[in-house]
Amino acid sequence: MRHVLLMIPLLWATAACGADPSASDHSGTTGDSGTAQTTDTPSSTSVAEGGSSDSTGEPDACTTPLGSGTEPIFTPSPGRFKLRNSIGYRQLTGRVAEGPPLEFHHEAERSGMCRLLTYEASTCDPMCAPPGVCIDAQCVTTAPLLSAGTVTLSGVGTEVIELAQDMFNHYFWDSEAPAELSMLTLTAAGDVIEPFDLSVCPVTSPTPTQDWAAQLQERMPGEAVTLTWSDPVATSRIYLRMTTGIGTHGGISSVEIECEGPDVGALELPGAYLDALYAQGWSCGECGGNDLLRYHTDQTPGGGPTVEFRAEAAASFWHIP
Q1: CA angle (277 as vertex; 276, 279 as ends), nearest 5
Q2: How far is CA 314 from CA 198, 239, 291, 308, in A?
Q3: How far apart are CA 119 and CA 106, in angstroms?
């Protein structure tokens, strides 16, 4: 019998924990108060750096297959490309797999737009052969990544950006160059998977109406915290996943909170979920970063692994219990 060693990419953990909580980073610009500093969303069809648009100004122009409905959407797509728009920085990451990514957590409870996720380590005998991992006493492996061929991105400035996958079939691009954003289009030439052409409107970060970090610091046990922002976008959705210090250091937290739903300008974090999240797993000291994402999305219609293209921007906040 042997406990499985769960390998999570160290680069992700470093990005999550290596920065000073009071300093800005590329995942979201954070001010001294701990709440995100953002810009208002203009109404034009193309916007300056860090800005967003709703294309023609008509709500239907940004409505996409996953962009409507009040129920949370928690099931990840096998393929996902994400363009993160921050003030002074843009980054595109993407990959396509034969199936959805592995999930170590299970939904224990759901309330509103949020759910409580829990994880218990298990053992597999015999132990899992790499790259297999042990989840619920079963050896499982991540679905293999597939090539989508050359991918092009337009709508970030005037140039068409061409991306080729690396040797592991990952796609990556980033830039600090000033650029106006218009309707974003991602086109894949196709290879193992069929060609696709997806379009979304860009977004800006939500603008908090209160200091979210202070709300978490001041709350009493069992008390819910409602995050509010002043500029909801009717055609967008929001997403938040909160983990512990263990989770942000490359391990797997025993408790996480995941929230998703339409952008209505408010998100309630249930008190019992926060109590569970902050009960243990914080010995690292310097972690506690959270990104509330606003996003627009489009996806392929079917006939193969579903590929999703998201344009997203984050309001970042920090809290260490």
Answers
A1: 65
A2: 22, 9, 6, 18
A3: 6
Question: What tokens does 289 get?
Answer: 């970063």
Reported for 131-135, long-range contacts at CB under 8 A and 24+ positions apart, including other chains, are 133/4, 133/6, 133/7, 133/102, 134/4, 135/102, 135/104
List, for residues 204-241, the tens digit of each pLDDT value: 999 999 999 999 999 999 999 999 999 999 899 999 99
Q: Which helix (H) or strand (E) holds 276?
A: helix 271-277
What residues pair up with 226 in beta bridges, in sequence order?
268
**Closest alpha carbon to 96 in 198, 237, 241:** 198
* The pair of three-digit structure tokens given for residue 137, joined into one six-digit string: 């006493």
The more confident residue out of 48 and 176 is 176
> Distance between CA atoms of 76 and 241, rounded to whole angstroms?
13
Of 288, 84, 295, 270, residue with least CA distance to 206: 295
Smallest Cα–Cα separation from 64: which of 186, 195, 237, 204? 237
- pTM comes to 0.82
Determine contact, residues 153/202, Cβ cutoff 8 Å.
Answer: no
Closest by CA position to 235, among listed 29, 82, 72, 55: 55
For 32-50, the DSSP string reads TTSSBP--PPPSSSSB-TT
Domains of the chain by residue range: 10-120+200-318
List the one residue out of 206, 212, 210, 215 whose CA is nearest residue 317: 212
